[in-house]
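Suppose a colleague, Dr. K., hands you the sequence of a protein chain of 155 amino acids and asks what its three-dimensional shape might be. Before reaching for any lab equipment, you can write down a predicted structure in token form. Begin with the sequence itself:
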Amino acid sequence: SRRAPKGAGTTVDDEIDIAIVVNPLPTPNLIIKPIGQDVVTLFIGQKDADAKTLIYDPALAQSQSLVQQLAKRKIFFERVIETGNLELVSQLVHRGVGVGILPTRVAHAQSDRILRPFLEDGPIFTDRICVVYQRELTELAAGKILIECVKSCLS
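The predicted structure, expressed as tokens, is then:
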């Protein structure tokens, strides 16, 4: 999930021992270890794609930041499609329905057609991808192994 506070909060509530969280908020009960980054920006698909329609998840801080950056640059879209599903954003952009706000990893997940950045000079939002876990997990041998496996597999 790209809604980091919910993911980190769930871990704090003892429902999850370890999680991959994007942009986690510092919490005293948790250990947060960065394992990578992703860049969120605007992507477009086919050459004949509709460049007048913006497709995005308005609930994400990344999307809100990019829309504000676009407004400061006086870049606006005639139509807007809002959805809470990044996979749907990616599929619609791949089909040429419009310009999507997506993390680069999501934009490039469908290997048959790579999306390209809509604007050469941004705007961008850099995400921190982290492994987040309970302090108690480090006290268990299995926990230590799990943490190392997750970090090595994703970094």
